[in-house]
Amino acid sequence: GAGVSQSPSNKVTEKGKDVELRCDPISGHTALYWYRQRLGQGLEFLIYFQGNSAPDKSGLPSDRFSAERTGESVSTLTIQRTQQEDSAVYLCASLRRAAADTQYFGPGTRLTVL
Amino acid sequence: EDKVVQSPLSLVVHEGDTVTLNCSYEVTNFRSLLWYKQEKKAPTFLFMLTSSGIEKKSGRLSSILDKKELFSILNITATQTGDSAIYLCAVPNAGGTSYGKLTFGQGTILTVHP
Predict the structure, then answer these.
(1) A5-99: which CATH number, 3.40.720.10, 3.90.226.10, 3.20.20.140, 2.60.40.10?
(2) Does the CB of B88 have a partner CB in chain A at under 8 Å?
(3) E strands within chain B?
(4) CB of B45 within 8 Å of any CB in chain A?
(5) From A91, which residue of chain B is nearest by alpha-carbon distance?
(6) Which one of A72, B18, B47, B61 is most buried, counting C-beta atoms within 10 A?
(7) What CATH number is associated with residue B107?
């Protein structure tokens, strides 16, 4: 596609429910990153995929968070048993190849946990 | 651990003013520094800087890197209300399992009044 896309754009859920956030990277981009931005704060790294493997998961805040990627395509970030502190904008970015630096961001998913 | 610090955290100016945003960094293996503009959710790419002393310019925006003193500045001349946004500085991890992962500064919130 022309750019990184994410869905849904907004998600409101109740505490304790599971949510799935989707990211479609730019076609041909091998590297994919998930970040989180809580209100009034900077972007925090969550997880990095190279192809469908995840060399760095160090930013996932707890075992309620998981992510997977199919080949060099779609990635899904799953949050189980959501908590109010999970409320944030979740951003996905992709890179054409690991040696490039300019990450292109998707529009983000705003998650609100009531 | 890589570290990026931006200043000021917020700035309020009037249309026509010139602003200078600062970014200092400490990274293990420096390769580049990136500037992004964030208006709603998704950061949009502005500049990538790799060489010291070479100014990158795009319209009223310009940026320069000082690799000796470990900082970069982003200048905006003749500011307009449409420049109101959060400006983010980031450095990518240059090696190991976290290749490409961006470490962001806190951002500078710029507000331009008519």
Answers:
(1) 2.60.40.10
(2) yes
(3) 3-7, 10-14, 19-26, 33-38, 43-49, 56-58, 61-66, 71-76, 85-92, 102-104, 108-113
(4) yes
(5) B42
(6) B47
(7) 2.60.40.10
